[in-house]
Design a protein that fits this description.
This protein is mainly β and about 375 residues long. Helix content is about 0%, strand content about 55%. It is built from no helices and 29 strands. The strands form seven sheets. Strands 24, 25, 26, 27 and 28 form a five-stranded antiparallel beta sheet that branches. Strand 16 and strand 17 (about 220-225) form a beta hairpin.
Length: about 375
Amino acid sequence: MEKMATLSANEDLLFIGTYTTRGRGEGIYTYRFDRTTGALARVRTLAGLENPSFLAVHPNRRYLYVAVEALGREGAIAALAIDPQTGELAPLGEQPSGGVDPCYVSVDPTGRLLLAANYGTGSVAAFPIGLDGRLGPASAFVQHAGPGSGVNPDRQEGPHAHCIIPDPTDRYALAADLGLDRIMIYRLDPAQGTLQPNAEPYAPTGAGSGPRHLAFHPNDAWVYVSDELDSTLSVFEFDPARGHLRALQILSTVPVGWQAAKGALPSGANYPAHVQVAPSGWFVYASNRGHDSIAILAVDPDTGRLSTVGYQSTLGQWPRHFALDPGGNWLLAANQNSDNVVVFHIDQLTGQLTPAGPGVHVPSPVCVRFLNG
């Protein structure tokens, strides 16, 4: 662990959430990242949180929010103050998440409201954020209902909210429910802290698709969804006036005919996890657990539809999450089962990824977030 000096102009802080009781992690790891070389240097680790998995940075870059996935009981959302020069994280308290296995947190663009998804019990909640970064008790809570799609009885016996994000206008929130095969649509009021079902309360995804994560295109008109259970990406057109989603396309995240190695996973098993759009808007990236790759897809600038460019091995196993730096020059992949985070340089003209080195050892990494992401 290095002694932290003042960040230089070409450096950023990186926070890595890990599984502790569900894995081998020790807490939240802080690294400094060199945007010129792609080098990572460990700064410190904050211990004491049980499974501090998914992370979100406040728009003012002074606070970090953490999904605390407690084993077998209701989870919590923790607030931490960030020292932007030393990378030190100071606890600001927690709020109950309202459900089991909180797996996703996001902050609305105004910084007034935190949104959270509880996977285990299939609910979403909103929490007001104070001027000091602390979270108030939940101001809104919605329990998703339904028997589940039933296509995959092991995973879709009931609702499983896996992601919730505000739309760029801050008038709506979209939540992916893996168990229901639906993108739930809520009217969002950050000032009042409310989540209300939209006039069109949801958009269906493919039967048995298991939608997991969502990403908006920079033009705010298209939404890309990683479908965990059938190895696809779903593309939607978004109407911000009505909060309406219109299905445009479904395509595979793995090569046609690909099969998992014998004994490694069930035949053909692959589980897409994260999806993100390049800042340029030209490419979409999705992580594949099983194929252990990043799928690289080109965006048609007129329609938002995707075409496959290729696949890049993540040089590890089970890439649960990845992050693109704000300039769109680097992609950092968190390989949960091989305990490493690997840095890739992005060719912004072709979208292709080139490893910048073997990566760094991080036990059970789950989420990576840039301070200035």
